[in-house]
Amino acid sequence: MKTLRRTLKYARPFRRYFWTVIIAVFFLSVLVLATPIAVRELVNSIEYSVMHGYDDTRLIWIIAGILLGIYALRILLHFIIGFLGHKYTFLTMRRLRYDMYSHLQGMSPKFYQDKQVGSIVYRIMDEVFRMDNLLAHVIFDFIIGILTFVTVTTVLFIMNPFLAMLVMIPLPVLFTVAKIQRKMRRHNLKAKKHVGELYGLFTDNLHGMKEIQIFGKQDYELERADNLNAKINDHVLKGQFWSSLLKPLMEFMSGIGKITVLLVGGILALQGSMPIGDVMAFMLFMYAVYTPIAQLPRILEDGTDSLTSLSRAYEYLDTMSDVQERENAIEVGNLNGNVEFKNVTFGYGDKPVLNDISFTAGPGTMVALVGHTGAGKTTITALLARFYDIQKGSIKIDGTDIGDMTLQSLRNNLSIVLQDVFLFNGTIAENISYGRKDSVTHEELVSAARSACIHDFIEGLPDKYNTEVGERGVRLSGGQKQRIAIARALLRNSSILILDEATSSIDNTTEREIQAAINNLSRDKSRTIIVIAHRLSTIEKADKILFLENGKVIEQGTHDELLAKGGAYTKLVHAQ
């Protein structure tokens, strides 16, 4: 019920459509009474006419005309229920998907570390789509069933209380429905969990198909997928077992009622205690009583399935990011780029990564972070972007603690080029200009591309800057993708530029050209550059080099100063 209430609350902005459908549902339920009553009047009229020997054809035509008008009205009501019900549903789905995607955009990297992309996409798309069944069908079908049952039952008791009581005898069986529904929901929930895992597995494997083929892991991955499929089938079949048990149970209950009315009503008619028209009306009304009951298993099954899916979708909305903006956070504008780390300590869970890190970096300077893998270099840049919160110490830009800034305004002052470059499925121009919120001229695109040494390559393509790069830039080489990412960062023109192994996939010639461009950028006194590099040739001109080991800065200075010390940095240089 909690999930249902939450869903209806989400749909509240579109309640005018909901109440319009409810009104249509009410009138449709009332019209259910029309056919049995009309048949009753028709049969009783014919019976009376035959017994008294006169022709009452006029009444038959009147009743037929009334029924024709009723069926025409039912067509209109069904259209209103179908169209507005789905409009109400899809507007609500759009709102929920918007909120989910907006919420996921605000989650820190920690949230995504233990989740598969396919599983997340499954919840946003497929799980939310189950709302259509709930809002457009289950709820309205349930309301129609309840209204029909109440109105018809009232009429039956007015017509013949004794026979109506007999019709109600099988209804206590309904108490078994709730228990069966709980079993169905439990298995549906487990099945959907495994379906999400299978989505994630397929997404990972399709992205890594080359690796699967190269390492000959086809059988291994096929077995993993089949095992998940088996778990899905197991829970689906267990849920279907209870669903299949529920349906014949309801049909049996309905059959008992029908036999009772036929037997007792027939006897009463033969005894002259009940008009034949009333017996026929009772039989028709009985279908109106038992049809909602017969549909109840389907409604409960669909409702259980939909609520299970939506509860999983809401789990993401209820998960808060571990990085939160502070109350009254400052909306900073364009910062100068004076970075200060002071006694910063940080770890991932119980695993310490950085210990008492302190350094400064200012506009027009380049600070390089070097050290062996796992020393904490990338973590420093992640903390600067506030993808994680530090545990001790402070990080300031222009004297303001980054924790006191809004996340968006902080990150507006950063440009990052990662070693694992991500390009969006679109054109080269769209990818280079992605970091800019304002419009970008072609001249600006070209300037950034030239600085990243990618312009000549782009001009050699048939569609030039309008060339489609494919999913994740699949149509480009690693070095080409990296240079486009550098152009994207340069065009953003932020005060702080972070290059995390940004030249790792570039040949020596291009590396020298890009390094010259970066050196030129660092001399314009308007940008702070922080570089992470394993290839030490790219950082020889750095104003300051920090050598990290086990999360600590053990050496710092210029390239020449560190070589003169003959310490850890010198050993690393000689090792290359």
Index terms:
576 residues; alpha/beta; ABC transporter transmembrane region fold; 6-stranded mixed β-sheet; 4-stranded antiparallel β-sheet; 20 helices
Describe this structure in words.
- The chain is an alpha/beta fold and 576 residues long.
- The protein has a domain at 2-318: ABC transporter transmembrane region fold.
- It is 63% helix and 11% strand.
- The chain is built from 20 helices and 10 strands.
- It has helices at residues 2-10, 15-31, 34-52, 57-105, 109-112, 117-159, 161-168, 175-207, 209-214, 218-270, 276-318, 377-384, 407-411, 428-432, 442-451, 455-459, 478-492, 508-522, 559-565, 568-575; strands at 339-348, 351-361, 366-371, 392-397, 400-401, 414-417, 496-500, 528-532, 544-549, 552-557.
- A 6-stranded mixed sheet has the order 6-7-8-3-9-10, with helices on both faces. A 4-stranded antiparallel sheet has the order 2-1-4-5, covered by helices on one side.
- Strand 9 and strand 10 (552-557) form a beta hairpin.
- Helix 6 packs antiparallel against helix 11 (276-318).
- The longest helix is centred in the middle third of the chain and has 53 residues, at 218-270.
- It is elongated, with a radius of gyration of 36 Å.
- 32% of the residues are buried.
- The mean pLDDT is 83.
